[in-house]
Amino acid sequence: MSKQKYTIADVQQEKLIEYDLDIKDAFILTYLKEISQVKKIIEKVIEGQRYIWVDYQKLISYLPVLKISSEEVIGRRMSKYEKLGLIKRHLHRSLSYGTYTFFSLDDKFNSLFEIEKTEYEDIDLEKIKKQMGLISPQSTFQSGGFDSKVESQSTQKSAHNTPTNNTPIKDKSSSMPAALSDEFEKELKNLLPNFSIQHLNKNSIKNIKKYSKGDISQVEKVLKFMHLKNKSMTPDILVAILRDGDHTKPESIKPKEIKRNDKIKFMSEKLGEKEIKRLRSLVINDIGFEGEYVERELGNVLCKKYNELMKEGNLNVS
User: Where along the chain is composition biased (Polar residues) (predicted)?
Assistant: First the structure.
């Protein structure tokens, strides 16, 4: 059985077909995923949801192979993604500089991208290896990837010529119901790309499930905590933290260890959009004009509030 290419850019080809998207869409969607993961990006938090600014002209310059020269064309494709429920749009209006379009990438967007690439099915591998003459018709094949050479006979004999039962022993390491296990893995695959963790192997997923005790909120807690501290995260680090329970141990964080942008982001999420608008209006009234200086001064206000909460011991960053 012939296999189609699993991804176009980073998007699963099956998803492109499902949503009636083309190759250009695949590269644009991959671009959105990539810029959402970089540190130097303009973003807003609205009702606890992260929105990023997408510069259409920069997108066009970054992907000349798409042969798109008009921002209107990009805008139409963005509208299509919005109708499909992949993204949400927010228009940011500035009295001095006009309107800017921000986007939030929904869970449905994250489902476009793979975590673990699948190869041939076991039955396909067995058939191909038999055709190659690498295994006999009587033997069975145990998949360990395309290059695996692991084989086992249906029965083996001991030194006393007694047939040995090779029935696989059921793994009792997890008592989690199958339905719950599947739901956990689905939530995990939707969560991890938000924190730049991709291409997990089955063993990593198994260990994450094991040490989090099937609680996706524990995984999310670790990821958010490490993201707030600007610490790099890999599957091995995630498993180690969950295994050792480091995320459950209280940790004192000094204000000087938190960067300015992280303080602003934290306070924006904590105070909410309504309060941020109120504070911005106070800043504008105070300085008498609107522009980049407003955002800088608003940032100073939020950092001051952050430091005050930290000093009072009323700040919980976990």
Answer: 142-168
